[in-house]
Amino acid sequence: MRPLPEPARESLALAPVLHALGDPVRLELVRRAWARPGSTCSALADGLDVPLSTLSNHWRILREAGLISMAVDGRNRRVRPRAGDLGDRFPGLLEPILRLGAAETQDDGPS
Amino acid sequence: MRPLPEPARESLALAPVLHALGDPVRLELVRRAWARPGSTCSALADGLDVPLSTLSNHWRILREAGLISMAVDGRNRRVRPRAGDLGDRFPGLLEPILRLGAAETQDDGPS
User: How much of chain A exceeds pLDDT 90, in percent?
Assistant: First the structure.
């Protein structure tokens, strides 16, 4: 697997991380990536009604903000949450966001 | 004082809140607004090297995301954090962000 470039842990900054999470599709991708580490991009995006080019842009923003690692695996790209780096750099940040994101997704679900 | 329009508490959504916080200037404005409720926009922006039109846009984004209330008070605009609404809607979200934002600001300070 060939890893794609990503920022070093010590250069992660809070505002880009929040910006990356500040979009409903990216927030959902992050929730899925955390729930299923090592999945492919396409598996994680399953069922989202978003054009491929937009998705690819979302993944890039998440990678450049330091939320995920991405590696080329043959014809696939595999995604790993940078949970350790983010927990070290921003302790206590992600847990409430993932929890609240999950709650909101359920609110939006079929009624 | 004449209040400016803002979203109702029950219509606050997580992604716009994170988006609003996902900019270093807006994050700093929010930190200041939380520390000094009822201050004027100009007092809160003191010392930030940002054009007035950009600041005005930042305040609008914060207001429309539901982070702050704003009211016209003569020639000033006064800012109040919507701490209660945000705490009700997104419990546990803001504390780590404000804490980590403060820590990062100190890192960036004069060395």
Answer: 92
CATH code at position A6: 1.10.10.10
Distance from CA of B1 to the nearest CA of A (A): 32
- The A residues from 62 to 91 touching B (CB cutoff 8 Å) are 90-91
**How does pLDDT run across B17-58, given as a tens digit for each residue?**
999 999 999 999 999 999 999 999 999 999 999 999 999 999
How many structural domains does chain A have?
A: 1
- Pick the closest to residue B107 from A1, A10, A76, A88 (CA basis): A10
Q: Which amino acid is at B67?
A: L
Is B53 inside any structural domain? yes
Instruction: Give the residue numbers spanning the domain of A77.
Output: 2-96
In degrees, rounded to 5, the angle at the alpha carbon of residue B41 between the alpha carbons of residues A96 and A13 is 40
> Is there a contact between A97 and B15 if contact means CB atoms under 8 Å apart?
no
In whole angstroms, what is the distance from residue A96 CA to residue B93 CA? 6
User: ipTM, 2 decimals?
Assistant: 0.93
- Flag whether A19 is in a domain: yes
Partners of A68 in the beta sheet? A81
The predicted model scores a pTM of 0.94
Given this model, what pLDDT does residue A106 score?
73
CA atoms within 13 A on the CB side of B37: 9
Residue A97 to residue B96: CA distance in whole angstroms: 10
